[in-house]
Amino acid sequence: MKMKKVLFAAVSAGVMMLAGPSLAATELTVQRFFGACDADFGKNTDVGKAVGECGIITSLINKFNADNPDVHVSVATVEWPGYDQLTAQFASGDAPDIVTIHESALSDYQSKGLLMPLDDLLKSVGVTSDAFTDAARNGATKDGKIYGLPIDSWTMLYHINMDLFKQAGLVNADGTPILPKSPEELLAQAEQFKQKTGKPYFVQNLANETALFTRNLYTYLFQQDSDFFADPKHVKLNTPEAKKVVEMYKAIFDKGYTTKDLDYGGAINAFLAGEGGVQLNGTWVVGDNNAQSETKGTALNKGGYAVYPYPQLFAGAHAQYADGHTWAVSQKDRTPEQTAAIGKFLKFFADNDFDWSRTGHLPAYKAIITSDAFKALPHRNTIAAVADLGRPLPSAVQRQFAIQDIVGEEMSAAITGQKDVDAALADMESRVNELLANI
Amino acid sequence: MADRLTMPQTAMPAASVRAPSVDIYAPQWRNFMFVAPFLFFFTTLLVVPLLWGMWLSFHKADTFSSGNFVGFGNYIRLFHDKVFLQSVWNTFYFVLLTVPALALIGLFLALCLNRRTRTAAVLRTLFFSSSVLSVTIVTLIWRIVFIPNVGLLSTIYGWFGATAPAFISDPSLAMIGIAIATVWWCIGLPMMLFLSALQQIPQDIYEAAALDNASRWQTLRSITLPSIKRTFILVVIVQIVLQFQLFGQAWLMTRGGPNNLTKPIVLYIYDTAFRRWDLGMGAAASEVLFILILIAAMAQYLVTRNNADRT
Amino acid sequence: MRAPAISIKGRAFGDRVLLALVILLSIVMLAPVLWVIGLSLKENAELMANPNSVFQAPYTLKNYINTIGTSSVFIWVFNSIIVSGGLTLGTLILSSLAGYGFARLNFPGRNILFVVVLFGLAVPEQAVLVARHQIFSLLNFHNTYHGLILPGLSASFGVFLMTQYFKAIPKELDEAAMLDNASRFRIFWKVLLPLTVPAQATLGIFTFLGAWNDYLWPLISATKKDMYTLTVGMASTQTNFAQSEGIGFLMAQAVFAGAPILIVYLFFQKYIVTAVSGAAVR
Hints:
Chain B has helices at residues 2-11, 22-25, 32-57, 73-80, 82-113, 118-129, 135-146, 152-159, 174-186, 188-200, 203-211, 216-227, 229-244, 248-253, 265-275, 279-310; strands spanning 59-62, 65-69. With 311 residues, chain B is mostly helical. Chain B folds into 2 domains: 2-57, no CATH class; 73-310, MetI-like fold, CATH 1.10.3720.10. In chain C, 51% of the residues are buried. The A-C interface holds A 8, 11-12, 15, 19, 33-40, 42, 53-54, 76-80, 85, 88-89, 91-94, 263-266, 268-269, 272-273 and C 48-49, 66, 69-72, 74-75, 77-78, 81, 133-134, 136-137, 140, 142-143, 220-221, 223-226, 235-237, 239-245, 249.
């Protein structure tokens, strides 16, 4: 027993030494999602070497710590999206200094006065909001003030395995993939794909998933000009437009055009292993997928990897659902040193947004999105269009993550046949409205 | 000390058992000091939160501001919420899946392993060992069994060219998947309880039965099972109370999905209070859970009391 | 463990069937754990390509080395030991004192208070969760060791158990000392407490295991990574396999997380079994 105590004391002392450097540095606590990858990138400060969201953000923060000996940032990694924890932290007065918050979730915390307006602080370090892209500025601004430093805009994409598309005969003469232009075409092409390759057209993570369903629905409602959130306190989802979308995805499910029981990680692995033609996933995996396609012997290396915005399937607006990540700062009493350190951190991320955009996200800064370096990144020519296509929910809509859960749950129930489509849409609408009525 | 201990028997043999002297058992405030420390924690950490929770359940309150009195408003919303009703049903369904399995498999193992061989000892250790693991490790283990691709189940099915059932995402299987993991995790306690009950049965009854040439089945039915009836009821009730509080397995394996089919009441409370910030309604759901558990606990009390009277 | 030797004739065949069933069940018990260990010994990339590769060399300790190097699992185990140990110690002290008080001494309102405490047995932790979280927020108790330990001290089970146990001790043992007007605490400490060691062991083991496995309260109270207990810490890494360091790494971490308590269990098996059986008889 004594031995054990000594051992643990030693271990914890060791850990403290690793975690707490010189006392002189200003301590900042940063909390983020994007995963943990300390085994691969825990000590890497060469950002250029890092790949993927986790690798790049870990390396960026390492570099910030290395470049700024007077500031020390300690990072807590939370499970995506981390809001359960953040809410509990705010409730107990123990929030981190800087935290990743989606633009769609900013107003939840901002409306309770929990976040610090950043305009003055950003100005003091020379970052002004006219440097942001329109999407980023709109997303980060609430009640006329900036409540998060935008680092990207993201959306969902068609990630395509070109080898399988070739086998399926879905390739144009110029080598680009043939994508559908209507729901009927989508089903026909998916059928053709299944016939020729024996594999499902879509790789989707449908196991206990809500976000993917919801984003798909929003995108195709936008494309039908359905203004389902005309009133931010009242949603209209029991509509013919929504029914069309759900029935389309239900047909895809029923006819076996999609993988069915994969969770998020499983879907990524299945796509990388060449088990389906199109993976529905976000901008954040472009970098990872591209790296795979350049590695010999992988499924994506065989015939190449392509990535496109969601195809326009309906006659309405050219649009698809989009959101963005920001660094928000909690409202707290701070010394001038601490506030200055936060300013440094935010400026560092504004300055290094190009590295973050290598993940596949669109940069949040005009100077970067128009830069040659960004345009020269692989696949940006095909996905740059989403900068104009991307559309968030109206920013006055609160509890967007809770709404996402409800919409996704009901849509999943309808698509997998647990519930009748009409019943699911009716429940979806009434549950969301009940939630919004009781905020 | 020894001479002191023997004293009462010599000095006042009659009084020592039934009627203690008024002097030493008279109510005295200073005696209260022994229970005061516990009562302090009991009051501040259980009674006060319980009352506070009741108060909250009649208010519209969110995580960052407490609001107005709404009477039974939260309860009315609660019983109109399909998801809450679903979660109540889910909880009962889960209890129905796990408790009989735990009781019967536990009894079966106890009957088989109630012998003095080395193998039996090793197996007893094995079957109890999973109980000491924490819920997060148990769910990690079982997710790794159930997930597609590198899952154990899908690998085994793969050998036969078949596709494994989707225990985490199929609407009709998800709760069963959670129940399997739970039975695996919790089987040790019922087994141990039955084993110790079996050892309370006097040997001579068995010897008499053997002399009567009773078959093994007869012995089991007419001697063993009746003798452990009380333990059986105890195991069932204890497990009902325990499994009613399902949270970790469902949260970590399925997040309550697909479409809330594996969302138990506790997860509903967590969801409402900490994810939707609706503290008042979360508190109202807590009160409903409290009443349900209270009923189960009362049943336990009545059963154990009646049985205690009989023995 | 004493087992009666049941000797009944003609049991050979039946025994074999039962044995086969028991062995089948033990495979179900063991296989998932072996699978986890197998995965932890493989390179991630290889696993993704072919899960069957678990059955073939090469094996690697890389995941374990990475876990030692970068995982916080050791801090979490350390936190869990502090919290579970603190709660166990506190529960033993409070329950023994109160058990003695309720069983042996009289004071105004004793019977009513005991009924109230019994009533506490029926209050599930989850029912007071929301309010308790709010109160602890006001007191700034979150993300502290006492914030994790205190809620468990309000549990009535220990008091109930110890009261029953003290009542079962013959009154003759301490009555003499009471008549001698020895201090009540002295009697408690010198005469009765040593006799309750078996009950202390039962209560201690149950409390420790309960605290070690608690998930819900630490989940909402310990929100900082260096205050995570093992359960919360492990949960924080496992939900999204793809966004973490890979399955092999997670499995190695799970082995590190599960090993200490399993080793403790194997060492103290005999006592644990006695404790559990002891609880059953009562």
